[in-house]
Amino acid sequence: MKALLFTHKSDIDGMGNAVLAKLAFDDVEYVLCETFNLQDEIKKYYDNGKIYDYDMIFVTDLWLEEPTLSRVANDDDLKDKFLIFDHHKSALEGNYNKYDFATIRVSDEKGLCCGTSLFYEWLVGNGFIDKTNKKIADFVELTRRYDTWEWKTKYADEMPQELTLLFNCVGCNGYIKLMYDKLIMIEGKRFAFSELENMLINNKKCQVEEKVANYASKIYYEEIFGLKAGIVFIDYEYRNDITEFIRRNNYDLDFVMLIALDSGTISYRSIKDNVNVRLIAEAMNGKGHDKAASSPISEEKKRTLIKILTEN
Q1: CATH number for the domain whose boundaries are 214-311
Q2: pLDDT digit string (tens) for 186-229?
Q3: Closest CA relative to residue 117, chosen from 14, 211, 205
């Protein structure tokens, strides 16, 4: 079976889907998408006609919007082999799950969902992955716990965060290869880090501590929408680490705006439980979850910010 996967490139949830696709299908091509360019990436495959060359097409940890959804729904050659697996509340509120090929679920009886857990459920249910393989199941659960933040709020389990640190060490394609190779190995019935992986993780922890302390010393304080906001210029990969540092040290803030010029996005993270940053992001043409969301930075604004930063 020849499969095509469009998945989120920014975190281990998006990468987890690529790993699962490689495990499930002999012939798979994956396209790593930013949050805000999925429609454009799919349009490229429509425009060159390649979208019809695949037996199955998956969109994971992202959601399609109109008019692309209607285009797929009205295409007899695509609608029965096109599947979406996403967990963002914005997608539910946009009614993007009204099509049979879209599975959008924020939570279920197991807890909060992520793209990897939803895709895994479908792959197991359809016989593409063996449900008795505990190592793969462990990998999916670690990914789910990190992406939903349950590693912190529910389980006090550091391993999901360490998986993300490993991802930040090796990058997207390096992580996909590393996890694929790890999961097809016969040795070991459960998921565990190797000695080398533990060394990389520990080195990354030291680097993160140094970076976060530097970022924390450069917070700008502003009132936005009547809320106390902390604004920080960061490298994208540290967006959750600086947020956790601010929460842990009880900064007097309602939320943070994390401006990452390297990714062209602003990440929004709630510091107080009663603050819904998804609504703030949507006001900035963004999307996401109630506690974690993002919006794009236009090229014009990016150039302006870079100019301001380099002039000081």
Answers
A1: 3.10.310.30
A2: 666 899 999 999 999 999 999 999 999 999 999 999 999 999 99
A3: 14
